[in-house]
């Protein structure tokens, strides 16, 4: 259903809402986050023809993104191979260090080992270890553009192990959040 942007009067099915008010993608991009400033912002009207250049050039990257989304939905990785994999003929295959991925996941679940010790043992930064622990690729999935697709590559760890690690990471984050609030 088409709606009209309240700021520039651009009519489109692709308009968004902010604070319950329809806005085109260009006006939304410049809209303030605070409701009071937003109300002032939408009072200043703009002729939608003056925004055509912005509209035209904001579409340039979309065909590429659509192609990448299609490839991800077919199971292809959209970035360099993660730790534990290597690329051969545009496919992910197990790398020589794939067994280290299992060690990292299992080590993280041990109560006596923390991220610092795992980081030191594998000579990977703590943030690198966190990236590994959150990476869906290891359970045969591809994450692209906030969506998860079935991958076309060998899995390194079981979904059960992955989920147990995600639960522990979530508990650690919640604990840190509670301690910083109080």
Describe this entry's structure for a reader.
It is a single chain. The protein is an alpha+beta fold. It has two domains: 58 residues, no CATH class; 107 residues, Alpha-Beta Complex (Hect, E3 ligase catalytic domain fold). The chain has a two-stranded antiparallel sheet. The protein has a two-stranded antiparallel ribbon with strand order 3-4. It is elongated.
Could you write a compact summary of the structure shown?
The chain is an alpha+beta fold and 182 residues long. The protein has helices at residues 25-30, 35-43, 52-58, 62-73, 98-109, 115-122, 126-134, 159-181, and strands spanning 3-4, 11-12, 16-18, 21-23, 85-88, 91-94, 141-144, 147-150.
Fraction of helical residues = 40-55%
Q: CATH H-level name of the largest domain... which superfamily?
A: Putative Large Serine Recombinase, Chain B, Domain 2
Coarse morphology: elongated
| Integer count of domains | 2
CATH topology of the largest domain: Hect, E3 ligase catalytic domain fold
How does the major sheet shape up? 2 strands, antiparallel
> What pattern of helices and strands is seen along the backbone?
EEEEHHHHEEHHHEEH
CATH architecture of the largest domain: Alpha-Beta Complex
User: If you average the pLDDT, what whole number results?
Assistant: 88
Text of the CATH class of the largest domain: Alpha Beta
- N-to-C CA distance: 47 Å
Count of discrete alpha- or pi-helical segments spanning 4 or more residues = 8
Strand order of the largest sheet: 1-2
Strand-residue fraction? 5-15%
What structural category do the secondary elements indicate? alpha+beta
Rg over alpha carbons: 23 Å
Count of β-strands = 8
Unreliable spans? none
């Amino acid at each position: 259903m088409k709606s009209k942007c309240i700021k520039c009067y651009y009519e489109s099915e692709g308009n968004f809402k902010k604070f319950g008010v329809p806005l085109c993608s260009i006006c939304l991009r410049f809209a303030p986050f605070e409701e009071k400033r937003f109300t002032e912002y939408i009072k200043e009207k703009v002729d939608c023809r003056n925004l055509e250049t912005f509209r035209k050039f904001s579409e340039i990257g979309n065909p590429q993104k659509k192609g990448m989304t299609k490839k991800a939905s077919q199971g292809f990785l959209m970035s360099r191979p993660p730790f534990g994999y290597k690329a051969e003929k545009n496919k992910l295959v197990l790398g020589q260090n794939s067994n280290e991925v299992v060690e990292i996941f299992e080590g993280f679940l041990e109560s006596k080992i923390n991220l610092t010790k795992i980081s030191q043992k594998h000579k990977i930064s703590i943030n690198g270890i966190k990236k590994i622990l959150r990476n869906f690729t290891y359970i045969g999935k591809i994450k692209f553009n906030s969506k998860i697709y079935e991958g076309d590559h060998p899995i390194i760890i079981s979904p059960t192990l992955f989920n147990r690690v995600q639960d522990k990471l979530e508990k650690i984050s919640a604990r840190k959040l509670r301690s910083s609030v109080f």
